[in-house]
Amino acid sequence: MFPLRSCRAVSLSLLLFLLATLPPVMAASLPPPEGDVLLRVTGNIEHPNVGDELHLDREMLMSLSPRVIETSTPWTEGVGRFEGPLLRAVLEAAGAQGEHVRVRALNEYEFEVPVVDFHDYDVILAMTRDGEPIAVRDLGPMFVLYPFDEHPELLNETIRHRSVWHVGALHVP
């Protein structure tokens, strides 16, 4: 048996570990963005910061569980090192309540993506490639990126359509 003092120390250590692994920005505390708005999240959300929408700038987005995916894509040459927030973290920050998300591009192209994709795979909003911001002429400022090399089964027409480029908004119906 462990002494009671040891159990308390283990419990405290476990609690501190769990707190340290929480996302760095809690959704309800997101202030309005200070920089240029890159993404608007609308619809069925619980944590707006500007009217009934969640507006996010580059810094805010990169604070939401940023991930690096090294992968090739159907639209780029070779393997790239892409970085951006996990889409599930963006939806959590918004307090999104829905089974689908309509991803809207700057040119008004839209495609509906099931939220389960963002939990089954580490799908990101790619904001940089090889350390550089992705320009609008090169799929940016953000695009939905699935980990293609890690999951070759994702290289299909359905997922290609869900990989929206030039993302500017997410709508949760």
Automatic annotation (TrEMBL):
<protein>
    <submittedName>
        <fullName>Oxidoreductase</fullName>
    </submittedName>
</protein>
<dbReference type="InterPro" id="IPR000572">
    <property type="entry name" value="OxRdtase_Mopterin-bd_dom"/>
</dbReference>
<dbReference type="InterPro" id="IPR036374">
    <property type="entry name" value="OxRdtase_Mopterin-bd_sf"/>
</dbReference>
<keyword id="KW-0732">Signal</keyword>
<feature type="signal peptide">
    <location>
        <begin position="1"/>
        <end position="27"/>
    </location>
</feature>
<feature type="domain" description="Oxidoreductase molybdopterin-binding">
    <location>
        <begin position="73"/>
        <end position="138"/>
    </location>
</feature>
<dbReference type="Pfam" id="PF00174">
    <property type="entry name" value="Oxidored_molyb"/>
</dbReference>
